[in-house]
């Protein structure tokens, strides 16, 4: 029970990596608040995760973000851990084909949304010497041939550097800020790219270890950063990607 007594907030926690993180936190003793835009999906997820509650929120709406934090404090009195996991993936297209509204939406959800939640939670993390874990991507570490998702890559790369900025800014408050960069993980977000056996084989082969990842494997790395096992670690960027980013 590595998170016994802790209160954790996981954005985008109703499915995929976020759900796996929330479930692992719960299994390790934490009370978990999960957010998502879809009420039905949120209700289903929270019913499957002990000691969790779901609060509907659009990460693009600062009032929604504030409401999540206010309700968490009202009910539990503190926040120990924030996992900035929520994100969207755009349609694959080259830069000159991207509509400006598409570009802005991806940056707003995948970057500014993380700013909104972090900004709201910082005053409470100061009181608990808390921990922030940002979920970036190995696409935030390097460019990939044929991976034409520029707004996504830009947002994820920015989150990597912001992790280091926030780690330095709030080290004096004993707030630790670390970052996980997953490779391709078997989630709803990646299913459109894994429709055929040929697609799956190609993607498996892109990862030197020979396969794509599972949400639970990312969740274990997040648990490490959130726990006291990582009490002397801040500003760290950890690739959890089967070796994809080191090719």
From TrEMBL:
Protein family (similarity comment): Belongs to the short-chain dehydrogenases/reductases (SDR) family.
Gene3D superfamilies linked: NAD(P)-binding Rossmann-like Domain
Organism superkingdom: Archaea
SUPFAM superfamilies per the UniProt record, alphabetical: NAD(P)-binding Rossmann-fold domains
Organism: Nitrosopumilus ureiphilus
InterPro entries linked to this entry: NAD(P)-bd_dom_sf, Sc_DH/Rdtase_CS, SDR_fam
Protein name in UniProt: Short-chain dehydrogenase
